[in-house]
Design a protein that fits this description.
alpha+beta; N Utilization Substance Protein A, Chain:P, domain 4; OB fold (Dihydrolipoamide Acetyltransferase, E2P); GMP Synthetase, Chain A, domain 3; five-stranded mixed beta barrel; three-stranded antiparallel β-sheet; 12 helices; 24% strand
Amino acid sequence: MAHEMMEALMALCEERHIDQLYLIERLEQSLAKSYEEVLHLNTKAGEKARVTIDRMSGKVYVYKLVPVEDSWDEESEQYTEYSEYDVTPKDTSRIAAQHAKAEIKAIVNNSARQQIYEEFSQRIGDIITGTVLQSAPEFTIVKIREGVEAELPYYNLQRHPEERNERPNNERYSHNQRIKAIIVDVRNPNDQQAPVRDGRRRPSIIISRTHPDLIKRLFELEVPEVYDGVVEVRSVAREPGVRSKVAVKSYDDRLDPVGACVGPKGSRVRTVVSELRGERVDVVLWDDDPARCVANALSPAKVTRVIVDAENNYATVIVPDDQLSLAIGKEGQNARLAARLTGMHIDIKNESLAADIMRSIPREVEKVEPEEEGGHRCEYVGPTGIQCRNMARPGSHYCGIHEKLAEYGELSVSDDPDSLI
């Protein structure tokens, strides 16, 4: 009986990839605690029980440990020497089998959780496809594969501030529905503070449908150029379930990154939108020039001029009067997403307001010291306070365009087109 039990234990260890010595040591420790109660040992007086299991035959031996009085150690506050007495009962195999069943179940479960933690803790940020197993008012359990489950939490953060909400407000899930999500965290199974649900440990893997990186991973799946690294998703700004902006850049001058992500007749971006349950996705061109980047981020609004204060990370944007509401967006959504996308504070003004403000500010024209044979900039300043960038003609304060106009007095002249975006 004992020999057959050992053979079964060894086969289970090989199947579940459990260390055999570790399993036997756990069984010995568990049996020792039980026999301390069965033998009615005086644990307060230092009496203990020790159990050994023969690795070959599986026979169980029980020993009673009685401390030697002169072996008390003041520093460790425990006895260092014990006298052993063999007190092996006749029914050790039956008791060992009962403990082995419970202990093996606990070890197998812990081993499986540890393997899941070691595997998926290295995959944080990866996208997974799973099947919905259970939906509750505050979470959804998603099956990744056989024996591996993940949790998609959407707790009310006002009632549960320690929890998290990873589901867009417009999404609901049904049983056996397939969804894509991104791994954002993996709980350590050895953590004693691991959360419990209905008396059971909650899944250690936490997935999200609101994280901005989800859009990056979806474009990697749908756009080969993004997967190969020819096109890079530089930044993502997202309001989950409503609207997102994606800034892309190409490392191949012959490839249009926006067109590659949108796809023929919008097929690629339409697939991403379908996976996001109708969330609007705007793909814009990333530019290393902050002014151009801000102008692109405010798409589809047209921008007249962008003035960037790099030190304060501040951008003032001037748009045509009829583009102001489009640039700001509904409830400021377009401007808010553009600010997140570029990482800059954006102040949007229409042309009429900008012209009034510039006229009220005293103009200080930057003087350029002439070189030996050089000249200086045209001193003409437009209605919005923008100085002409052309060089003045020799012997004149103005360039060829504004020299004749100055002779006829103050005329309305458009700003320098080179400063427009």
